[in-house]
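request received
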Amino acid sequence: GENVEQHPSTLSVQEGDSAVIKCTYSDSASNYFPWYKQELGKRPQLIIDIRSNVGEKKDQRIAVTLNKTAKHFSLHITETQPEDSAVYFCAARTPEFGEKLTFGTGTRLTIIP
Amino acid sequence: DAGVTQSPTHLIKTRGQQVTLRCSPKSGHDTVSWYQQALGQGPQFIFQYYEEEERQRGNFPDRFSGHQFPNYSSELNVNALLLGDSALYLCASGYRYWPGELFFGEGSRLTVL
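response:
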């Protein structure tokens, strides 16, 4: 089955700087890659996603890039703000397994004011 | 527009007991998936339902079972509870013709003593 690795596990950046979180996946058939933000005690919230026919997608301060050849994708957050502090999860979906998402282990992002 | 709603939000059970968790999907959605999130880890896929049938199942024992009703709401049942079943149980809903894009509820936090 699919395996998703996520790095780093913790990340601290100064407010206003950029943050990058990287994930690799194992199944070349995976075609959908969402990113979720989870604040303490809250639900995972979909913040951006990308499908395999696209190399990059941007939404204001957040962008995701996908390299299908290398089987990795990354989340980029620019001009970080204190409210960006949370745990971020990447995930991958393989069509063979319906809507099953395989999640990474999470990155705890801390924005230092 | 109500999002995904889950009940109860918190519950405490003892080993060997049984538990039922409930989920109502986001308006317009027809699929429901259940995930288990242990503390400090990413969500793990349990199973997915649409058209009132289990469609995909993750690596969980038969003690975990579910049901989907005609109004698309769903239940997760866990029998013979173990200490290791303590976790946040997340329900996610989606639209079967736009697979992968899932919206999560706030979860039910189960503690097994």
